[in-house]
Automatic annotation (TrEMBL):
InterPro entries, per database record: Sec1-like
TM segment ranges: none
NADP recorded as keyword: no
KW Cell membrane (keyword) present: no
Key words, A-Z: Signal
Name by which UniProt lists this protein: SCFD2 protein
Superkingdom: Eukaryota
Any single biological process term in GO: vesicle-mediated transport
Species name: Vireo altiloquus
Length: 345
């Protein structure tokens, strides 16, 4: 979007986590990093220099975190970057922040944002890290109950050639969910009116069913489908996200996170872990509202990220051991472990 540029080739670039015997934050220089990470840092510095060259930027760098300091220092001393800064006409401040310093933000569910939910719940487009597959079967006359049916190519979110779709995507990113869904309805109604489709405008709350009924109007009109294909893909992504079971679980996550933030001052970590323990259920005991193994990993990352100083001791060791045991059992009982669980095990 106009305000956000993602660099998916560097999605795996993470600061090394401090471990026993590893280098301390103060002594990390490029030479102290593992070879793979060193290569990734140099690649990022080269990519950033190319980006800043295209924008004609002379940057002033700031860094928060050990790896960010390394990257900022490398960019400052990179020979092509020094030449670029001498001739660039635009000034910019660049702030590097270690991703591990904001894990709570990455795994939390506080955003009331439709784009975030679409990117979180719909399956990834093969070969892409920042786009999703949108099921297009609804726009066809093909009736199939087979979820693995792949005759129809999936839609996606990137619609650079459709101005209405681009404007709608900006709304998904910048507005609250309720307003963004209303924008989706407005764009659909305008598109249908332009194509003289028999649309009945209704007021009040927008439901996924209502959006689906509007989409159906385009189904048998090939010209209208072609003219508004990008917009229809974005609205279908909205419908599929709103109906997705993970979206209803989003509110459960949010409730738990709020409760945790309220009790954090009074509770110690062992009591929080003991509260979590009965919620860890194996595959056979779970209902659709219960947390899966991955959900628990996300919750644990959130808990440990927001807790601050954790007092070590026998009580903590016992509580952590119980949670570990329950999680290991739940992971081992999964009939079809997800790619993430397979990677972890």
């Amino acid at each position: 979007s106009a305000e956000l540029c993602l660099l998916p080739a560097l999605a795996a670039l993470l600061p090394p986590l401090p471990g026993p015997g590893g280098p301390g934050p103060a002594e990390v220089g490029l030479g102290a990093l593992p070879a793979g990470l060193r290569a990734a840092v140099l690649s990022l510095v080269g990519d950033l220099d190319s980006l800043f060259s295209a924008l004609g930027l002379r940057e002033e760098s700031f860094a928060v975190g050990a790896l960010s300091r390394v990257i900022a220092a490398e960019l400052a001393s990179y020979a092509p970057a020094r030449n670029r800064r001498r001739i660039a006409t635009n000034k910019a401040s660049v702030i590097f922040v270690d991703r591990t310093l904001d894990l709570a933000g990455a795994v939390g569910h506080h955003g009331d944002n439709l784009a975030e939910k679409i990117l979180s719940v719909l399956p990834k487009l093969p070969g892409h890290r920042t786009d999703v597959m949108v099921d297009m079967v609804e726009l066809t006359a093909l009736q199939t109950s087979d979820e693995t049916c792949s005759i129809i190519a999936p839609g996606c979110l990137a619609q650079p050639n459709d101005p209405a779709a681009k404007a709608l995507w900006e709304s998904f990113m910048n507005l609250k969910q309720k307003e963004a869904v209303m924008e989706a309805r407005r764009h659909l109604v305008e598109a249908a009116s332009r194509e003289n489709l028999p649309i009945k405008m209704s007021m009040g709350e927008v439901t996924p069913e209502q959006l689906s009924s509007y989409i159906q109007l385009f189904r048998n009109n090939l010209k209208a489908l072609e003219n508004h294909c990008g917009l229809l893909q974005l609205v279908l992504a909205t419908v599929q996200t709103l109906k997705h079971p993970q979206t209803s679980k989003w509110d459960n996550f949010l409730a738990f996170e709020r409760l945790l933030l309220q009790t954090i001052g009074d509770s110690e970590m062992p009591s929080v872990l003991n509260q979590l323990l009965p919620m860890i259920k194996s595959y056979n005991e779970r209902t659709k509202d219960d947390y899966t193994c991955e959900d628990f990993l996300v919750l644990l990352i959130y808990i440990y990220s927001v807790f601050g100083e954790i007092r070590c001791g026998k009580e903590l060791d016992t509580a952590e051991e119980e949670v570990k045991k329950a999680l290991v059992k739940a992971i081992c009982d999964e009939p079809e472990p997800s790619p993430l669980l397979q990677k972890i095990t």
